[in-house]
Amino acid sequence: MLKRYFLQFLLITSAFSAPQINEKCQESADNLEQACSLADEDKPFVGHSNENSPDFWQLSGQKTLEDNIKKSMNENVAKNLIILVADGMSIPTQMATRMYMGGEEKVLSFEKFPYVGLSKTYCVDSQVADSACSATAFLSGIKTNFGVVSLDASNRRYNCSSKSVKKNHVESIFKYAQDAKKATGFVTNTRVTHATTAAIYANSPSRYFENDSQTPPGCDDIALQLIHGNIGRNLDVVLGGGYREFLPADKYDPHGRVGVRTDNRDLIKEMLLTTRRSDFVYDRNSLKRANVKFIDKLFGVFSKSHMKYHLFNDKTVEPTLIEMTLKALQMVAKNPNGYVLLIENGRIDHGHHKNRAKLALEETVQFHNVVNYVKSQVDERETLIVVTADHSHTMTVSGYPKRRHDILALGGFSPEDEMPYFTLSYANGMGFSQHFNESGRNNPLDMDFNDPLFMHPTTVPLNEATHAGDDVGVYAIGPYSHLFTGVYEQHYIAHAMMYATCLGPEKFTKSPSCDESNVIKISFILLAFNALTFFMF
User: For this UniProt entry, which residues form the secretion signal (predicted)?
Assistant: First the structure.
């Protein structure tokens, strides 16, 4: 029995390692040995053709060394700042995505950035972060409690009486960008009131206070703060999901779905009535039609709740993350003073929460594409790009699979129960019930791991997988990007961004270039004034 299962495992893994999988190998496990008997006739390509030579590795190492030696520090003022957040993108997620894209030596777009660091993501009261406390940290420069949005750690979660104390509020870098007359906005494929983006504009003792039906007296719900709050109402572009948070329960959105508000307020209508030259978009076509030349505010929600995963997206209804990013960049680039823009792929996190590794990896590929697009559209001499995750996830890469092995497939064999096991697994989550029964593990050979809804195995059964507490990567390019090297607390990211952009409270240290920039601006204004005076008289 042990020999039979081991032979089956070797055959199925060799089949999945091959550049083109033998279609017969998709047949039932009973015929697997015979069906895949030809799978080893052609040895699969493994790595670069020259990897067996020491010269290959020496040249590769020397090239990397030369690139690092040539690095120069850009100490210009960062006129523009783009923050790209891959929600839940752990280091193992990056490794697995490279494999998902085609091989170990693949490089994600942001991994090419010259400066890299690690941030420690814990909250004031929790070893493992959620998106609310982590986003508060890297956007405001202050750590807070688990589940709390842009309030300091003296606030108790869910407590609206402490929220009302103004001195407990913390401000994100977006507030200081608006004070400096810069354009501001964000793009996400989650609800626009979800935790990460809420930290831009809202102050709330709970990330779950997204609409009035969820919010106790004494607190303004997050959707209300997005429309009427000091920061929210001044955002130039907002694109994402979550229509339901803005509409009453008896009113339908353009796609025929009702809202969840109980105060009978239509916040979208209120926004359009109170904001000059604003445009509201609700599907892919209306977004494409939006002419940024004639509007000062672009507000779009394309789904009732979160937007669809990329693999399930109906492009006639929902725009892609890149399409939203394109329009957002067009909006903020109009401002001569510069801009601060945040772009989030929050569906990486959601895939991991459901143990659906394929969905998480596909979303990471889309994030990689967005970063690549953003980098191609901006001037790195004056635009700082910072890529990071808000927290990690418990997915691990285990076993000793061969090079070029399908990362979603079986990667090892257990003599203890005489069955193979998957390369990817999670510490906890819903996948437990699919992989275990009362007597032990279910046979993985009978499972369709290429199904996007397939759940990889977990050790502990939970309704939803938890986050993980390990450090996450930070990748930077542009002005003062060298400040993002090292291992540091997550809230340091905001301090480094404020230093580079000359934004933030007066007590925060700013780049010496800030004074030089102001002198140049004043000189330009004086020259323009003198020229105007000369021609007038």
Answer: 1-17
DSSP letters of 401-431? PPTT--TTSEEEEETTTTEEEESEEEEEETT
Q: What is the pTM of this model?
A: 0.89
3-class secondary-structure state, position 86:
strand
131 belongs to the catalytic site: yes
Which CATH architecture does the domain made up of 80-88+111-357+374-394+468-515 adopt? 3-Layer(aba) Sandwich (3.40)
Strands 278-281 and 410-414, by their bridges, are unpaired
CA nearest to 267, candidates 245, 282, 283: 245
Question: Is residue 120 within 8 Å of 469, Cβ to Cβ?
Answer: no
**Binding positions for Zn(2+):** 87, 349, 353, 390-391, 467
Residue spans of the domains in the chain: they are 2-49+396-461, 80-88+111-357+374-394+468-515
* Separation in Å, CA 320 to CA 315, 363, 365: 7, 11, 13
**Catalytic site residue from 14, 119, 131, 392:** 131
Residues tagged in the binding site annotation: 87, 194, 196, 344, 349, 353, 390-391, 467
* Residue 196 C-beta-side C-alpha neighbours within 13 Å: 24
CA–CA separation, 279 and 248 (whole Å): 21
Q: Quick one: 88 exposed, middle or buried, by C-beta within 10 A (0-12, 13-18, 19+)?
A: buried
Partner residues linked to 149 by β-bridges = 204
Q: Binding site for Mg(2+): what residues are annotated?
A: 87, 194, 196, 344
